[in-house]
């Protein structure tokens, strides 16, 4: 079952991996799509002296953040809280110091300061590169918060004139992302209309769907005033409830009042307050932490499908790019020609493996012959062509002004030729179906030939050359299969009709299968999949004058033609696959790149070099892609390791 710990912990691990790779919120130097930006997070936003640091320390229950005047938070701090079992020791661990467990939170404060100075120096400048801090404690909830530099209105000594805009741009780069939950910190002793956090959140989240409002310093408001209009959503309404916080006073901080004691005092304040007593159950840092943890968990759960989709899409994009990347190639023409020929042979080896069964795909050609072609033959409109009305019309037209004397031979020929013309369609369709399979196998073979992935130009040349060759094979195959059909039309099997008079002698034998009483109708036999046998040979005899031009006479003609067509159909079902394999599959195995080889041998050194060309920055790009691909695959494995509850 999915737990809050596994969901938030999952995002924590992916965020850490992103940071190691240089993918972090607020970075605009990344040439890759950002996985970080797809991960739900809680960004803490507030102006300087709004009580932002105190809120974070209240949630954690520890003093661990640097304090001072001016801009103290100069790098984003990704604070990952992990709830442990009761009685377990508290400790902190930095991503840049893996394996070092710090139990003294004064050391944590100093390490944050030192790590900030390492990137920004001792100046008051800021950096978008985050610091990752994980805290493990039984007194916290599973939650991840990003502490951002406090918004300011003026630059102080030692800061550039652009610092105000730089901080706002950094904060905005985090909170404008649709997956970011905004924790807007505002002091209660200032007009909410002047709140820097609310002003910014309103710009990036005008509906308030992603914003949680936090009101600090409630105990410092002027006597006789309260913040109920804000807390109850009348002054500024958000989709989520406002939460009031009472931080430690400066005197408490100076006296190092324990955070657990401070939490207790905060709870007592709300429970005993005449203004806020009715809201006490939904106030305070403990409630805020639980509220954020639950909401973050629900957002992560909802975003998992889109995160997975982004990861899979990014993996596909990176693998596609890696197909073009990885060992230096020779510079002389002879070695380059040898390299190209070797690459082509490896491609041909993979292609033949697909056809011969070493790899999947060749069986699709057999499926064309075993399923698609018979199905197409069964669907031919033969029954409609041999309908009583059409047979009468064709035979009458063939007779012209003088009716046939004995058997309507011209009528038979026209009916047979007209019916056989339908077989052209399945014959051509078989050729096209095999052509499509061969093209797919070529495409797969190019992609599966790893050595070709570095050379997209050569891949394109091979693809173009094989397409031309397969088109030639298809044209020859079509001509051959159509000839097979035309040959059946051009010369009928005379013995079939010569045997009909012999049937007359058996017609009187009631037990003989050709006796009409023991024979199924042509329609039933066709539906059963068995070609209809020629009916009583009196079809061809003159018969009585009354029957010669009656419906029974024409039905017998249709029956005989149907039987003959069934015989031809069985023949073509065997010969068409033979022709297709001979003209297309066999040629593809033996001479797919023959013409390409003759053209390659005529190319000059410069043209050969172009086929094996690589960008000078390919090696660096390849390394970047490889690391990024490892990140996404690791993230996918992390997601797969969690059993999601829908």
UniProtKB/TrEMBL annotation:
It is found in: Cytoplasm, Cytoskeleton. Keywords: Cytoplasm, Cytoskeleton, GTP-binding, Hydrolase, Microtubule, Motor protein, Nucleotide-binding. SUPFAM superfamilies: P-loop containing nucleoside triphosphate hydrolases. Residues 532-542 have a biased composition (Polar residues). GO terms for molecular function: GTP binding; GTPase activity; microtubule binding. PROSITE patterns: G_DYNAMIN_1, G_DYNAMIN_2, GED. Residues 554-646 form the GED domain. Residues 36-305 form the Dynamin-type G domain. The keyword Cytoplasm applies. The lineage of its organism: Eukaryota, Viridiplantae, Streptophyta, Embryophyta, Tracheophyta. Residues 506-546 are annotated as: Disordered. Gene3D superfamilies: Dynamin, middle domain, P-loop containing nucleotide triphosphate hydrolases. The keyword Cell membrane does not apply. Pfam families: Dynamin_M (PF01031), Dynamin_N (PF00350), GED (PF02212). This is Dynamin-related protein 1E-like. Belongs to the TRAFAC class dynamin-like GTPase superfamily. Dynamin/Fzo/YdjA family. One of its GO terms (cellular component) is microtubule.
